Amino acid sequence: MADPAKLELLTRTPGEPGFKVHEVQSSQAYLLFKPARLPETEWELTRQPRSLDGSRNYILRSLRRDRYLLLGPKEYFLWQQFDGRHSLAEIGRAFHFEFGSFDYSIIRQFMAKLYSAGLLEEFEASGLHRSLADRQGRFWARALNTVLKARDRVSIRLTDADRYCSIIYNRGGFLLFHPLTFAASVALMVSAIIAVIHLAPQAKNIAMRLAALPLLSSSVIVATIVAVSMLHVLVHALACKAYRRKVREMGFFLLQGIVPTFYADVTDIFMSSRRARVIVDLAGPMVEVVCGSVAFIGAYWSAPGIGQSLLFGAGILLWESAVLNIYPFNFLEMDGYNILVDLLAMPALRQQALALFPTLPRRLRHGPRLERSEWIQLGYLGLCFFSVLAYLIAHLDALGLRMPAWSRS
Amino acid sequence: MGLGRDQFAFRGCASYIVGLISLMVKVPEFLDTVVLFQDLDAQTLSTLMPLLIPKKIKAGEMIFRELDDSDALYVVEQGQVVVSKHVSGEMEIVLTRFYPGDFFGEMGLFDSAPRSASAHAELDTILWRLDREVFHQILSNYPEIAARICYRLVTVFIQRLRATNDQAREAIRWGLEATGYSLSGDPTPFGRKST
């Protein structure tokens, strides 16, 4: 690490001869620096429900840059202190009194977040800063950056999605969130279950008809899944509009860098209630449930043939998709996971759990003892691990059963 | 436009007289160490010597102030000079220091704009002053000497420009460190993408 930068300042006392030269290190100035958050007109802060361990998080939104930050109790404390009147040395002392320990890296990291979100008073970052930051980056950091940029190129973004969603919502989209619509969906689902029970004895014939026309079956199923996925994220977005919150963008990306999927950025719903968030999360999978139900009912009323088989197959896939979406323990941040973290009031559960895992052996040997929230994180990791394992075993088993059939043919 | 015969005769005569005087002038040893005059031989230096005006400055005294009229270059024979620029209130930032053999204030030779910074003697200092008018006489009367001086001036300008870039970078680094400013914050911004 480079030595702290130094400045030499020259001062003169008016009316007196001579001058004094003072050397000021950046580290000295840092302690005297008084960070000032922007005026309240520039941000919005929402208190989140208490989590199971009694702590409370906050969501801070920068209205200027439309960025959101999750503040834990310590960061919230710092945010309150950044009023432009307290120096970092004073804030450090206050933090120590409040939490019993202190590390300046906490302030550095939090300030970096705030600067990045444009929430602290700052001087303009010139191109030189950026070029310096780029130049001083390590090789692996630059390589990672390149990979992330390449990954970003895979994504497609519709940044004025909010305008389109508002239009759709106002021209009939609001009907989706009427209680009658929900009642109709439940009735549809019950009818579909009855239809499935009636069709179940024909399942083998249906599967054989699909297998007889693999190209047509695959094409129709894939097209259905893509269309319903788009509808799914649109309904998420419309649910967000139902609570008068902004849809930041919509598009296509690689979920967790792996799974290609459509998405709607509904971060703004964090400025609303927990109930609103859960409803936005549930609205998406309801599309699969309703479309799947329609497909099953259609299959029930169709004459036996390829049409009926395609409808039945689509129904099964859509319902399965809804279940996968709602199931929270798969390492992916899908709708079920979002509902889980909302109910637990632990919005960064997955990230915290993944960060905790590598430190676990040291923590168990040398302490400090795990806190309640950390046990929850471990529980999440364990359930994810066993769920994925069970899924793999089930599918490997199915693969194993098919292998001899292939070899015989 | 060519020189008239009389002018030519006068200039030749003047050069001859200056040459004669220069033979009698003892060139201080320190002039050999001045970068600006590095390409000049002893005879040329003795020609220049009478054109420089010595000046003694006590420690703490001001040589020139920012926004003063700018009309001369200074060569440091002895002592130490600090150059600073006003920042705010009574505070100035130290830009650089000059030691024996260095020169400063060279902008004043070419440009009549006010001084861009202040210069103070940090120790008891002896300076040699080269006025703009005199420099312009050298340019007209001794173009070969002037060319050598100008070449050195350009070389030093380049070095100082590089030093200024480094200084700007350090000043920015200072600001970044003092305010905890970072562009690398928040690598995974908080958000919810419903899929």
Give a written overview of the molecule.
- The complex is a heterodimer of chains A (409) and B (195).
- Chain A contains 16 helices and 8 strands.
- Chain A has 409 residues and is mainly alpha-helical.
- In chain A, 61% of the residues lie in helices and 12% in strands.
- The termini of chain A are far apart.
- Among the domains of chain A are: 40-121; 159-326, no CATH class.
- In chain A, strands 3-4-5 form a 3-stranded antiparallel beta sheet.
- In chain A, strand 7 (249-255) and strand 8 (259-265) form a beta hairpin.
- Chain B is α+β, with helices and mostly antiparallel strands and 195 residues long.
- Chain B has a single domain (29-178), classed as Jelly Rolls, CATH 2.60.120.
- Chain B is 40% helix and 24% strand.
- Chain B has 5 helices and 9 strands; from the N terminus they run ααββββββαββααβ.
- In chain B, the strands form 2 sheets. In chain B, strands 1-8-3-6 form a 4-stranded antiparallel beta sheet.
- In chain B, strand 4 (81-88) and strand 5 (91-98) form a beta hairpin.
- At the A-B interface, strand 1, helix 1, strand 5, helix 4 and helix 5 of A face strand 4, strand 5, helix 5 and strand 9 of B.
- Strand 8 (259-265) of chain A pairs antiparallel with strand 9 of chain B.
What's the architecture of chain B, going by CATH?
Answer: Sandwich
In percent terms, what proportion of residues of chain A is strand? 5-15%
Mean residue pLDDT of chain B: 83
Low-confidence stretches of chain A: 124-136
Name of the CATH homologous superfamily of chain B: Jelly Rolls
Based on helices, strands and strand pairing, what is the structural class of chain B?
Answer: alpha+beta
CATH class of chain B, named: Mainly Beta
CATH topology of chain B: Jelly Rolls
Shape of chain B: elongated
Classify the helix fraction of chain B into a percent range.
40-55%
